[in-house]
Amino acid sequence: MSIRCGDVMRGVTLAMKYSANxxxxxxxxxxxxxxxxxxxxxxxxxxxxxxxxxASLYIKLKSWLKVEALIPKINSPSVHxxxxxxxxxxxxxxxxxxSYLKAQDYESAVRINLEKLDDIDEAVQLVQESKSVQGxxxxxxYFQNSDxxxxxxxxxxxxxxxxxxxxxxxxxxxxxxxGDILIQTSQVRPEDFKSLALHFEGEKNHLYAGKFYFHSGxxxxxxxHLLKSGGTEExxxxxxxxxxxxxxxxxxxxxxxxxxxFLLGETxxxxxxxxxxxRLYMAKKQFTEAAKxxxxxxVSEMSGGRYRAARDVAxxxxxxxxxxxxxxxxxxxxxxxxxxxxxxxxxxxxxxxxDLAARLLLRTASDVSFFPTQQxxxxxxxxxxxxxxxxxxxxxxxxWARVLMQPEYRSQIDSKYTKKxxxxxRHTPRGAPAPEPSTPCAACGAQLAAHELRCTHCxxxxxxxxxxxxxxxxxxxxxxxxxxxxxxxxxxVEVLREEGKCPMCGESxxxxxxxxxxxxxPYMDLHTGD
Length: 530
What we know:
Blueprint: H1 8-17, H2 22-34, H3 38-47, H4 51-61, H5 64-70, H6 77-90, H7 93-102, H8 106-116, H9 120-130, H10 133-145, H11 149-158, H12 162-171, H13 175-183, H14 190-202, H15 206-216, H16 219-226, H17 233-250, H18 253-264, H19 274-283, H20 287-303, H21 307-323, H22 330-350, H23 354-365, H24 374-390, H25 394-404, H26 407-410, H27 415-426, E1 438-440, E2 447-449, E3 477-479, E4 486-488, H28 489-499, H29 521-525
Antiparallel strand pairs: 1-2, 3-4
């Protein structure tokens, strides 16, 4: 009543005396605001806990010290915006910028950075973080005025000004850049890509025409242009990569057939790298065909002596099939097993485990025709004889030494091993061969030579241990946590302690991450495909 009667100071004093009564403070503050007693109203709002209202009134009064004291407590974007506008009007642009950001008025924040603070880097970062369309348009205009068309195109696309971006890109000969920016933008219309495709079609640029027809969804035209793309090897590889995406996206068997004929060389008599065909089959989820192609690629790598690369190609497809719980075809299993065993030999020799190296070489030698060149075959058979000799496996060394003495191999034996191999052949071993170490079959439990991967009792094909190359043991089973290939746990622990990397995938693995696996079934089920 004191306030209503005009005795403002008495009313405020009484209200503050009873400041525990929040409703009383709020009612008095509202009455004072109606009476345009903003300073007293703001003080009572502040004591009542209505910081936003208090700050709004202090801004009207330009009581900046009191406003700044309240700013950390303010949550209302409208109050921050009010404060930002007031600070901008006073020329305090840094303070204005901070409050525009708190108010989430990103367009005003971008404008302040560009027009008042001349901080283009901050403006660009703000647009990228906020995705503000109007902010992007302002930045684009800034770059246009600064004669930086590349950046202007980027921000015109961000501001969804596709037509303006297209015209600017065409004017400056940067349509390829414009297209790449479009590909990374989610709100693009198919007609924007089609405009680009038509432009490059008119210029006879088949790579770019095909690329942008693909992104416009016109897969037939895309494939036609991509298969005509010549130029450098790099350009052709890019065209083939896009053509593979086109075939996979279209789900059109005619387009896939055209691409396959091109890759096989049926179109122009020039067969392409089989890796392209492999990627096509993988993209179309045709895993049987992909497996056959992976074996072809592996054989090609082996011809150049790149055994590890050959193994990795086959291993990669195995991993892809296993990730989808699909069976691994027999030819692919054989490729991985033979190559990994041969790669492991060097490790075992280095560690002095000649018996294990010899057993793996014996398995490899019995499958030596798998290796594509006679030179590699002779090298493998020579290593088999030498390691069998070191391991005391005289009968086996004698057998393979005799094989090496056959006419097709003899002339290719390395001269430094010729006399040694001839000596092995001259001294026929006596007595029976030493018994082979055996471990139980993971499927039926019958004892089986440790290096054999097919059980003679139940005829199950067994997975191999990535640490030793021997067949896995059910009671001592683990798997690499990175590639999930199985292993004998005690053996893999030793390898990881010594080398720190998985012998199959090459990833760094702490041996303490290994866990014992009790259920062998998942690894057996993945070895049932033909």
